[in-house]
Amino acid sequence: MEERTLLTALGNIVDSLGTLSLVATAPDDPLSLPEPPGPEQTAAYEAHVSAIKAQVDANYHNLLAMSVRDYQAGYADRAGLYLLEFLGKLKEEPDYDRNFSAAGQNTLATYVADLREL
After folding, report:
1. For the chain, what is the radius of gyration of the CA atoms?
2. 74 CB-near residues (< 8 Å, 6+ apart)
3. Torsion (CA) 42, 91, 59, 115 in degrees, nearest 10
4. In the 8-state DSSP scheme, what is residue 74?
5. Residues with Cβ within 8 Å of residue 3, at least 6 apart in sequence
6. Hey, how many other C-beta atoms are within 10 angstroms of the C-beta on 30?
7. Could you read off the pLDDT of 25-80 as tens digits, one per residue?
8. Model pTM?
9. How far is CA 5 from the centre of its chain?
């Protein structure tokens, strides 16, 4: 697992979700459905998720695919929940401390905090 590749892709995904969550809903109508992102944003999100998939075990691919699905539909909060579940499982791996430096673990903790704010 390449730490830098994974952290860079996750950082871009967290930024994308934060941006989507800000523009997805109409504040004047709390029951409105979210606006899906455009094709460029969706393609970028999928590319970042693909970069992560290439770094992790296939057991995680379903969670990542569900995140993409909900991102495409405009549901940043749900897409973020799948990523939180993915990161939680990643942290439980026996090789977590070996795969991620202390700085990398701190970065992942920051991403988890950011995703929880969505």
Report:
1. 14
2. 20, 24, 33, 34, 35, 36, 37
3. -20
4. T
5. 99, 100, 101, 104
6. 7
7. 555 666 666 778 999 999 999 999 999 999 999 999 999 999 999 999 988 889 99
8. 0.87
9. 14
